[in-house]
Please model this.
Amino acid sequence: MLSDRTFNTDRLTVSSWRSLGLEEHEAAEAILSHVSEDARQFLPDSLASIRSHEDAAAWLTQQQAEGTDVLFAKLQSSSEVAALLIASEQSDSGSTYLFIGYLVEPSHRGGGLATELVQGFVQWVSSSTDVDSLVAGVESSHAASRAVLSKSGFVEIEGDDSSTNYLKYEYRLNR
Model:
């Protein structure tokens, strides 16, 4: 979907799992390690239902089939600590936006990595693509994730479905 999907931040190298040299089973294992019990309440059903390596592998295969990029973030001398999910969409007006989601491994939460990941992605998209905006969904009670998006310049917008507990945030790129 995105030509060169690699970017760096102060602490992270972010790239597709294949570019990082991971085998599919290793990528599935990394996804499984990011979907912790305490995070399930905030995740979409497709991620929250991952409970085994097989579930993670099936989810990864489905994302690939749907054209969703799954990038992993690595600390300098560490294994994968976060995942960034990117799906390209076209609005009714013809503008292109990317829908993003992110997961951080439980042992690395609270250290600013999610904010660094999202801000790094915003900078990369701004300079490397012709995308018009970024959109992210967040569970309304997930204060930490809402803070990540706000700190990264996203603003809450009206969602399509007020019957859910998910809020929609958008970052408009100056094009």
